[in-house]
Amino acid sequence: MTDATTKTPAAGRTAGKNVGAIDTRKYFGTYDHRTLRVKDDHLRRVLAGQDLLLFDGAMGTQLQARGLAAGEVPELLCLTNPQQITQIHQAYVQAGSEVVTTNTFGASAPKLGDAATVEEVFSAAVACAKASGAHYVAADIGPTGSLLEPMGTLPFDDAYELFAQQVRAADAAGADLFIIETMADLAEAKAAVLAAKECSDLPIFCTMTFDEDGRTFLGTTPEVAAKTLSSLGANVVGINCSLGPKDVAPLVRRMLPWSSVPVMAQANAGLPHVEDGVTLYDIKPAEYCEAVRDMLDAGVTVIGGCCGTTPAYIAGERDLLAGRTPVARDVCRDFAVTSSQRLVSLPAGHVGVIGERINPTGKRRMKEALRSGNYDYVMQEAISQTDAGAQVLDVNAGLPEIDESATLRRLMADLQGVTNLPLQVDSAVPATIEAAVRSYPGKPIINSTNGKQETMDAVIPIAAHYGCALVALTIDEKGIPQTAEGRLEVARRIVAATDAAGIPRQDVVVDCLCMAASTDQSAPRAILDGITLVKRELPGVRTVLGVSNISFGLPFRPLVNATFLAAAFAAGLDLCIINPCQQRMMDVVNSWRVLSGEDQSAQAYVAGYAGRSDAAPATDAAAAGAAAAATPAAGASAQGQGEPAPAADDPVAQARAMVLAGRKGPMPALMHDILATHDVLFAINDVLIPALDEVGVRFEKGTFFLPQLMASAEAAKAGFNTIKEVNDASGVEVASKGAVAVCTVKGDIHDIGKNIVKMLLENYGYNVIDLGRDVEPQVVVDTVVREHLQVVGLSALMTATVPAMADTIALLREQAPWCKVIVGGAVLNPEYAKMVGADYYAKDAAESARIVGEILDQ
Amino acid sequence: MPVAPTLTSYQIEDVDRGEVLRYLGYRDQEVTPELDARLDAAIASCLAIGHARASIAVYDVAGREELPDGTPQVTLADTALTLVGKSMQRHMAGARKVGVFAVTIGMGVERELKRLSLTDHLGQVLFDAAATTMVERAADAAEATLVGMAAREGLYTNFRFSPGYGDMPMQTQPVLLDALDARRRLGITLSPTLLMTPTKSVTAVVGMFDAPQPSTHASCADCFCRAFCNLRATTGRTCHD
């Protein structure tokens, strides 16, 4: 191929936003056999880890030493003073640099503004680099300077487009390779690597920068960076900038076992200090090279320098490399997946737990949570599974009545906020899978492909392209085979295809599929033998099993599940998909780890089970907590409020007192007491709501301040949750008082005010659809239209984001004119509210609740 | 000759509980022991997660001029940063040098805020107030560093002034952060609406003068920089001597 801009799926898209539209089948087999355009044999050997390579040192500090003013845009010098840039490159070439790095670190469209185009700067920069006589020209690509979603506001696809523009410009200008560097955000690094991979066929070098604590600013570890980026398709991974080389050395050592590609290091010359008006770096070339020698000895094969380094440092490194050859190193072949903050690996013989709870199938409350857009329940499930010992969380949003793809992406973004476990993307729709894994900052598991040709053709290329692990179900066009051998045959066909696509064996996880023992008692044996056969006949692959189907139709199912899980471990099972909050299942896992030797000296087992016996059975932490909290300290309960304590035998008075005191602990027990003698409506309308009204009055008068209002809302919510649980058990529906959507507007990430309003509205019995923060106007409108909402609440904290509020309201007026709009937030006032076209201004959360009542209770 | 900005870390071991309560709108309400305990826990958690770091530079005032539209601006030597507007004209009137800093308590705090926003709304409010107090404390520390730098050259400072206040434009942020290399060194990013993330970050400028200013501290007793001041220890004098 000669035209680098037309041969990739991304290039075929107009704006890069319509991820779901990619027809991955077309690209079967091309992803991991990405044919690189490599300039010469030496570079080819470097990429194979067979040769060493020397980059250059700093550009920025060299320019400052030549008088570049602080805060000036250095990339523009490629156009205004190309001789100076070429001179710096030349000095490095003379010192021994084989690669020079273009002066394009910040050359992205938003940073250049009107001063020049990305294409102009890359064209001039590559020309400057070539003019130096360097052997290779590396096109430098730095971070965008904006923070990506979900922590920031820049969408992944927008970051991708910025990088794609740079990649195309650099390729067209004649660069030999890309150096994506100084990345702190794994999602951003992933966007850049994907842009390079999809818009060019030049080799990709990618480095991240780490802090003293061994993590990037966003919390990524060297192991996670190495595993994720090398799986994704970076040809060389490593560390740059950060600290001095002595501090970088141990971090780069941590990368080495997890990178299947060569590893590079470009450290700073330590920290700068100013002496007599001159900036000096505290590590001199000799000391610098000592540390680099250690890194070479450990297996690093590509070196250079970052901030503060000069041609003198590079000359020292050139001498280091003279006569050297790469040091052999071992790359770990364990099953390993990552989130942005955590690598989870499974050495041979170890077993792992995948939490199954985030899946609506057969779960009423999960269904309701996904349908209503109230994800609090999902987040709680994630946290409790994490606490219970899950190592990966399965995420499934497959409900026919919701937008599965959008819901899955939102859930995955939110889940990263509450758990650092890697995720397993669970969907039957290939486009949904691709959209989810593409922007996921880490290496996820895809659940799943199966033996059907059509499914394999669609899903396997996605796993290969994005470097994911892949669950392979032993089912094909003919259904689930009855026998172990039949399952092996399906697995064999899938693994042949994953081998061909270049997916490493340890990333393929075969699921022999559980069938009910009650309908076919030969099924358990076939499954267990299947696991053993697959592991023997397809060396390197791993196995996984969702076990609970085995007990379908039988009484006391958990017992059967646990027994079967133990048998499956004995048969060679590596990963189980279970509910880790069921103590019985985790008991099997924990005890098996002793029997298999995974739990060395049974340390974890002894620590967790020393006090346990059948006489003193499992202490479910949640139950214990609830039990402790269920004893309301009646005397002390309302103290601090200057009120007499209610009688201990009057649960109604006590519940009211607890809400006023903001004490949620005793609420579940009190509500149970109340519901024993009263109906649900009484509990809501005569207990909780009057208490909340009193809270509102006190807040209004200033006898309560905000945290007290919120503590009361928490206590009331605990009461409502109990009512819900009791109701769920009895099958009675409590009618919602109506639905309302809330969000913080586009461009604003301050969600505190919105969260307070949400809390209060939920308390008053409204179904609150929380659209989150930094929300596109169209998303608000679509929700209002889809749910036929009568009212929506918009929040903005900053003056800068008030226009976004006006845009949202304008769009609502156009497409959903029936909907009333309430606005609030720090910068808002009645005049502003009028100016942006809102129907109501709410000065605080209590007033929001009153206004919503006015609108909906009419 | 331009010099690289100074990178500094500060140990912040406590924050003023009363100030945290003020951010929460507290006016002598009677608070339950539970709420008190949660506030203490939020403050402790913030101090444990937060890591105060600053990038600091001092530039000579190069000139004072008017933009074509008549807006005054103060230009500085060796940097593309200029101080635009009437507020800066007043704040820097007579200044010889300008100290500039960016300070943040880090992305860890931001991550915790995000976690709390998904799990514990009251916890988020309490933690946010603690974090705001902590970053202001960090800004006190950065200001103290500048007071010391000025004093060593025989200069006196006024007080810190941040973009977005008075008529000092938010558009100052990108150049200011670039001059301090704050994106790379501190991990501070800017949204298209010029908001910083981590949100618990402060940028500011401080004037440095030949003579004490009305706002220069007259005594150490009530100085907010006191905990971070090493001037007397290193030079034997105070900033107002």
UniProtKB/TrEMBL annotation, chain A:
UniProt keyword Amino-acid biosynthesis, yes or no: yes
Q: Which SMART domains match?
A: B12-binding_2
Q: Which residues form the B12-binding domain?
A: 737-858
- Where Zn(2+) is bound, by residue? C241, C306, C307
Arranged from A to Z, the UniProt key words for this protein are: Amino-acid biosynthesis, Cobalamin, Cobalt, Metal-binding, Methionine biosynthesis, Methyltransferase, S-adenosyl-L-methionine, Transferase, Zinc
Reactions that this protein is recorded to catalyse: (6S)-5-methyl-5,6,7,8-tetrahydrofolate + L-homocysteine = (6S)-5,6,7,8-tetrahydrofolate + L-methionine
According to UniProt, this protein's pathway is:
Amino-acid biosynthesis; L-methionine biosynthesis via de novo pathway; L-methionine from L-homocysteine (MetH route): step 1/1
Q: For this protein, what is the EC number? A: 2.1.1.13
Q: Which organism is it from?
A: Parafannyhessea umbonata
Any GO MF annotation of the entry: cobalamin binding
Q: Domain Pterin-binding: where? A: 351-596
Task: State the GO CC annotations.
Answer: cytosol
Q: Check the record and name the InterPro entries matching this protein.
A: Cbl-bd_cap (IPR003759), Cobalamin-bd (IPR006158), Cobalamin-bd_sf (IPR036724), Dihydropteroate_synth-like_sf (IPR011005), HCY_dom (IPR003726), HCY_dom_sf (IPR036589), Met_Synthase/Corrinoid (IPR050554), MetH_bac (IPR017215)
Annotated ranges, domain Hcy-binding: 41-321
The protein's matches in PANTHER family, at most eight in alphabetical order, are given as: METHIONINE SYNTHASE
Tell whether ATP-binding is among the UniProt keywords. Answer: no
* Cofactor(s) the protein requires to work: methylcob(III)alamin; Zn(2+)
Query: Which processes are annotated in GO (biological process)?
Result: homocysteine metabolic process; methylation; tetrahydrofolate metabolic process
Function of the molecule: Catalyzes the transfer of a methyl group from methyl-cobalamin to homocysteine, yielding enzyme-bound cob(I)alamin and methionine. Subsequently, remethylates the cofactor using methyltetrahydrofolate.
Pfam families reported in the protein's UniProt record: B12-binding, B12-binding_2, Pterin_bind, S-methyl_trans
All residue ranges annotated as the B12-binding N-terminal domain in the record: 642-735
Protein name per UniProt: Methionine synthase
Which family does the UniProt entry place this protein in?
Answer: Belongs to the vitamin-B12 dependent methionine synthase family.
TrEMBL record, chain B:
Q: Which organism is it from?
A: Parafannyhessea umbonata
Q: One GO molecular function term?
A: methionine synthase activity
* Domain of life of the source: Bacteria
* Residue span, AdoMet activation domain: 96-206
Q: InterPro entries, from UniProt?
A: VitB12-dep_Met_synth_activ_dom, VitB12-dep_Met_synth_activ_sf
Q: What is this protein called?
A: Vitamin B12 dependent methionine synthase
Recorded coiled-coil stretches: none
Please report a single Pfam family linked to this protein.
Answer: Met_synt_B12
